[in-house]
């Protein structure tokens, strides 16, 4: 049931948070679905402007972890701070959190009854109550930015997977988030459309957007990431700069995983 | 209109004995037109009420509170599993007995008219089915689509109103058409609580004029035309709202 239809007007970070501190700080996070323990004490920090990739075999808890960051999944133990604000707080203003944290999903999840432009405009207009004209201008610019000019009035059903995914990215950006989460955004795409989506993300990263990606695109992770985390069975096995992790992995599990991929 | 058709039906009655008195007698004609108007209003308001109940009820069905869901479930069981005729009688004679009377200047009338009782009763009856119809539509909307709205700061009501319901409505439309068509026909039951709608009016006419077969034909045609128009309208809506390229 709705409890808080209005966004809290102030979105200033708590006074104890400064931009030189981690934008996202995850400490000893535990998460179970019933008896299945998906995350077993995960900790990681993401600084402002940093691009972090989380890699690892299926079922290692990667997606669950980033879904926890914007409160789509709740956690049983530990702490997730976004700009100093505790996500694991029952009194948390989820809407204020989600305004800061954008997420793009594997299956794009566009609104099929709205055109590309309307998809991008909907949340700022309907939820943030921003003036329609202003939002439309911004939305058109974002659609151009993801190289989809001319597709503004096309419905998602008539767009390719890669095009839909880029609309989804523009839709998240329209909320002007401080950090973007990407949950295996290329996993459902044809190989030839993967490239255009990755290019879009790369441009975002180059502009200084803080990004956390769960991905199976190792080449991309290596090229774009500032830091790579390898997870397996709910824990972070190893992490480091991509050059180090991909060439000089210390843990046997990491080595085995990477050898299967490359 | 009346002046145009009256001579034709007058001649028909004189020459063949087919007595369509509602088309050539001014008094009966006015009665007939009033009957049409009341019937159409009854259909319109019952359908609207049933839709409002359906939309709200289906939303409550998605609530976390087991109590709220239980209440809606109880409502559905009660009104889906009892005959609409009994419901009309229950509302009008059962509940109607407890509603206050209003002084109309010398005589008293119940505060809630038989027409209002019919709208309430039929709307609540149709609404019970609509809740289930919308619920099935809501369940067919991918959870991930609603989740995307949630992640874009939509509140749960906004997610329902802007995303889930518009999609669920499209999925539900064929089943909804069936139910609304059925509800439109069920309005004829308001006859039993003396709402002067089409069935009641023509019954009066044939009692006064002993022309049952003729009035039966008119009654049949009336419902055929009205219900076909409702169904056709909903089909057009279905085509209009079809999601381009969705689900292929």
From TrEMBL, chain B:
ABC transmembrane type-1 domain boundaries: 36-231
CDD domains on file: TM_PBP2 (cd06261)
PROSITE patterns: ABC_TM1 (PS50928)
Lineage: superkingdom: Bacteria
Name the UniProt record assigns to this protein: ABC transporter permease subunit
Gene Ontology MF term list: transmembrane transporter activity
Any one cellular-component term (Gene Ontology): ATP-binding cassette (ABC) transporter complex
Topological category with respect to the lipid bilayer: Multi-pass membrane protein
Family: Belongs to the binding-protein-dependent transport system permease family. HisMQ subfamily.
TM annotation in the entry: 38-60, 81-99, 111-131, 217-237
């Amino acid at each position: 049931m709705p409890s808080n239809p209005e966004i809290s007007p102030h979105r200033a970070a708590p006074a104890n948070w400064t931009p030189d501190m981690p934008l996202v700080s995850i400490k000893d996070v535990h998460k179970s679905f019933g008896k299945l323990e998906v995350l077993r004490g995960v900790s990681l920090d993401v600084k402002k402007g940093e691009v972090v990739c989380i890699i690892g075999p299926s079922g290692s808890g990667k997606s669950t972890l980033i879904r926890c960051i914007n409160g789509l999944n709740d956690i049983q133990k530990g702490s997730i701070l976004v700009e100093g604000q505790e996500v694991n707080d029952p009194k948390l203003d989820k809407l204020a959190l989600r305004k800061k944290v954008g997420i793009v999903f594997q299956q794009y999840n566009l609104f099929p009854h709205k055109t590309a432009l309307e998809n991008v405009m909907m949340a700022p207009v309907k939820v943030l109550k921003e003036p329609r004209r202003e939002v439309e201008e911004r939305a058109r610019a974002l659609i151009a930015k993801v190289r989809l000019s001319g597709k503004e009035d096309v419905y998602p059903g008539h767009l390719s997977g890669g095009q839909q995914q880029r609309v989804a990215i523009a839709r998240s950006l329209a909320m002007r988030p401080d950090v973007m989460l990407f949950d295996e955004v290329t996993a459902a795409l044809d190989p030839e459309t993967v490239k255009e989506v990755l290019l879009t993300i790369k441009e975002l990263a180059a502009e200084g957007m803080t990004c956390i990606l769960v991905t199976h695109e190792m080449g991309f992770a290596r090229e774009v990431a500032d830091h790579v985390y390898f997870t397996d069975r709910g824990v972070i096995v190893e992490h480091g700069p991509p050059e180090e992790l991909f060439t000089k992995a210390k843990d046997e599990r990491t080595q085995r995983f990477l050898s299967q991929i490359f | 209109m009346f002046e145009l058709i009256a001579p034709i039906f007058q001649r028909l009655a004189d020459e063949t004995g087919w007595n369509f008195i509602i088309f050539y007698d001014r008094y009966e004609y006015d009665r007939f037109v009033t009957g049409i108007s009341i019937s159409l209003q009854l259909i319109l308001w019952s359908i609207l009420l049933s839709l409002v109940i359906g939309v709200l009820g289906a939303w409550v069905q998605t609530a976390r509170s087991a109590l709220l869901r239980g209440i809606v479930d109880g409502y559905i069981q009660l009104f889906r599993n009892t005959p609409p005729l009994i419901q009309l009688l229950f509302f009008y004679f059962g509940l109607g007995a407890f509603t206050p009377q209003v002084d109309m200047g010398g005589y008293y009338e119940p505060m809630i008219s038989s027409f209002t009782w019919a709208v309430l009763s039929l709307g609540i009856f149709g609404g019970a089915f609509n809740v289930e119809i919308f619920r099935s539509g809501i369940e067919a909307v991918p959870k991930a689509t609603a989740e995307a709205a949630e992640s874009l700061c939509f509140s749960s009501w906004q997610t329902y109103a802007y995303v889930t319901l518009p999609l669920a409505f499209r999925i539900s439309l064929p089943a909804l058409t069936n139910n609304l068509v059925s509800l439109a026909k069920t309005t004829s039951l308001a006859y039993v609580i003396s709402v002067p709608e089409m069935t009641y009016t023509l019954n009066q006419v044939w009692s006064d004029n002993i022309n049952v077969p003729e009035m039966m034909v008119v009654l049949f045609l009336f419902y055929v035309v009205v219900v076909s128009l409702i169904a056709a309208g909903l089909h057009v809506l279905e085509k209009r709202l079809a999601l381009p390229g969705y689900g292929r």
